[in-house]
Amino acid sequence: MSVVGNNRVGIPIVLLHDAEGAVVTVETKRGELIRGLLFEAEDMMNLYLKKAVVLGPKPGAKRNVEQVYVRGTEIVFIVLPEMLRHAPMFQRIKHWRKHGGAPPEGVGAAVGQAAAILRKAQDRRRGGFGGGRGGFGGRGPPGGGGFGGRGPPPGPPMGRGGPMPGHYGAR
Fold first, then answer.
1. How far is 139 from 151, CA to CA, in rounded Å?
2. Are strands 47-55 and 62-70 parallel, antiparallel or unpaired?
3. d(C-alpha 99, C-alpha 92), whole Å
4. Beta carbons within 10 angstroms of residue 49's beta carbon
5. Residue 77, number of CB atoms within 10 A of its CB
6. Mean pLDDT, 10 residues at a time, over the chain (171 residues)?
């Protein structure tokens, strides 16, 4: 599991999502400064700002816009609010560094199909396929048999009227 969760986005993007609802300042490649309420941030760093003030690119040029959409590839940098210094994501990073990548207690509990696969792999490491629902073997006679038995079935296998060539008991 990554520091920021299973959605595989990096720390800057998570921080940007945490800034939604706060006032941010964005500088674009054209030299504009846009200051407004960050309504939505996308994973590709596209931003949707409301009640924004756009300054530039010419000195003294200022206009108020109700909403503006800034494409992520046009952004040079973003000034985020100071309050994000205490964002929950940083607590996850501290925990991750301290405990070597283990998720905090109660966070990241495995559910769903992937969790079932992981649990089955752990069961195999603990001692075979036996036990639990849908497992193979562990229920046959002491000498083996069945799908998960411990060796060949007792006695020679019988084909059409006798032992089959190339199998146990063949002559």
1. 14
2. antiparallel
3. 10
4. 25
5. 9
6. 57 87 95 95 94 91 95 95 81 75 58 70 70 51 51 56 55 49
